[in-house]
Amino acid sequence: MGSLVSTSRFSEWPISSLSWGGLLLGASVVLAFADAQAWQDIYGHKVAGKRAGLVPGVKEIPKVREFYKSYKGQPDTIITAEHDGHARFRKIMGPGFSDKSMKAQEPLITKYIDLLIQRLHQYSAQGPQNMTNWYNWTTFDVIGDLAFGDSFKCLEKVESHPFITAIFGSLRHILMFGFLRKGLMFRAFAQKTLKKRIESYETRPDLIEPLLVRKDEDKYSFGQLAGMASTLLFAGSETTASTLTGVTWLLLSNPAAYEKLKAEVRSAFQSEDEIDFTSVNSLGYMLACLNESLRLFPPVAIGLPRRIPAGGATIAGQYVPEGTVVGVYQWAINRLSSNWNAPDEFIPERFTGDERFQTDNQALAYVEMRVILARIIWNFDMELAEEGDWLAKQDNHLLWRRRPLSVRLTPVQR
């Protein structure tokens, strides 16, 4: 049974305590697996059904609908849709994430990174800065523009948008009692903002453009478009902000790694203008730091549940009967010594070809995070402004309710 998470803390969590929509599933528990093969068997797309030994006609292990749907009649998105619908969304939205599209989107994103650096220079002299807020404001402004055609103006006003405060200030209650009023507020906000984008339509290289271009041809309802824009908003902002906050704390708590990354960034460029979406690809150690942060502080720590269909399935070589809810808990598998050497230590070298870590499993990072982090490191020396284990203080309610990260920023003198 080595592929199962043996610790009851992970393998026996009730789904009701983790449900995005807060909908109770009675006494159901998640059977949590802990190896890479289980990840492929449970969540994989290509030949997933054959690999997991599903009965003919079943292409993949279905999602637990009560978890993914927060209210009755919710339109499907790329997150909630099953196999065929998911593939359809991927095909249409894929071009928006291509290298060509990312290059076209670069000016939209860069203007917010420019404003972030400007604001940090303005406010660094006032004392330690809450990097949790700064990262939130930047990523929500960026993805608001890319998903809805308008930013939240957080960096402009140097404050959280009321919508962001309401959603992330109530994560715990959302999961305990269902979306209810917050869910309806989110839905109304998304619809209002998207309506404005459609009414003032202009061709622009954002993430919702591919859907708008084909909305009549593919018969997308307004509800589906709003749902997809909302999905892009959360997936593109919270995951990036969470990883940036985590990697900042991990670097500043590990001075050797931080100094090594500073040396890489500051020796790679002659001026800040050279730091862009293409040039950051040369920062191999930075990518390793981000990958190691994603391992130790995954944006989604829990296991997204699937329910074994009729006929059962074979997960990581083990037969699982129909009706069983299964998942892979990222926080758990990323800290198991059976998967990683020195699993609780921040060692970016495990992602740079160090032979000590050749048996580890690895992941990828995002260009936006690399540009933001590179420009902050180019402009500032950083130091933690408070003692204690910041990572250990975090609460997880599907997403992290991240505590303030207080950092002293000292402008680099050149």
TrEMBL record:
Positions in coiled-coil regions: none
Keywords in alphabetical order: Heme, Iron, Metal-binding, Monooxygenase, Oxidoreductase
GO molecular function ontology, one term from the record: oxidoreductase activity, acting on paired donors, with incorporation or reduction of molecular oxygen
InterPro entries for this protein: Cyt_P450, Cyt_P450_E_grp-I, Cyt_P450_sf, Cytochrome_P450_monoxygenase
Pfam families linked: p450
SUPFAM superfamilies: Cytochrome P450 (SSF48264)
Cofactors: heme
Assigned protein family: Belongs to the cytochrome P450 family.
Official protein name in the record: Cytochrome P450 monooxygenase
